[in-house]
Amino acid sequence: MSPELLFVIFTILAFLLFVAEVFVPGGIIGALGLVSLLTACVFAIRAFEGSTGVLVSVVLILLTVGGFLAWLMKMPDTRIGRKFAEQSGKISGKSAEEHPEWVGQQGVAETDLRPSGFARIQGQRIDVVAQRGFVDKGTSVIVLEVHGARIVVRPVEDAEG
Fold first, then answer.
1. pTM summary value
2. Residue of 98, 140, 93 lying closest to 121 (CA atoms)
3. Are residues 130 and 104 in the same domain?
4. Residue 132: helix, strand or coil by DSSP?
5. What's the pLDDT at 6?
6. Is 154 helix (H, G, I), strand (E, B) or coil?
7. Distance from the Cα of residue 32 to its chain's centroid
8. Number of other CB atoms surrounding residue 44 within 10 Å
9. What does the alpha-carbon distance between residue 74 and residue 8 come to, in Å, rounded to a whole number?
């Protein structure tokens, strides 16, 4: 096989492995993706002689790092990111079971709650779930229930009515 074809194959394989790492965490698939990316860089240097091959390799690595950083910034706002946050069971580094005093406390929704999102309660940003429907960002909310890592809130005006 030609170095150009191997460069393309290993580049595609690397990105597929990076995407698979999101769904199957553990690091092994991501490490294989990194090895594939570095292998693609080697084939780029062989396929594109001299400084062009090095430039292609550097651009490939920079695009990968840039894409990863963009993904890190955008991921918490996606449906998959919210599912990961719900599964983590962590709220400001502590489990919700350590905060039964939050029941009845008021705060502000820092993100749209669809139905899950973030609210600031007692100065801490925590994962919450709206009791029903959607709650807009900036709405005052009250904590109704704490069940393990699940903190249920609803808008203050609904709680009073």
1. 0.49
2. 140
3. yes
4. coil
5. 92
6. strand
7. 20
8. 25
9. 27
- Its domain, for residue 132, covers 91-160
| CA–CA separation, 99 and 72 (whole Å) | 28
Query: What is the count of structural domains for the chain?
Result: 2
At position 113, the amino acid (one-letter code) is L
Q: Confidence band (pLDDT; 50, 70, 90) for 27?
A: confident
Identify whether residues 111 and 69 lie together within a single domain: no
Residues 70, 96, single domain; the answer is no
Angle at 147 between CA 144 and CA 152, to 5 degrees: 35
Confirm if 158 and 136 have CB atoms less than 8 A apart.
no
Cα–Cα distance for residue pair 58/54, rounded to 1 Å: 6
Are the C-beta atoms of 49 and 4 separated by less than 8 Å? Answer: no
Q: What is the pLDDT of residues 45-59, one digit of tens each?
A: 988 877 898 999 999
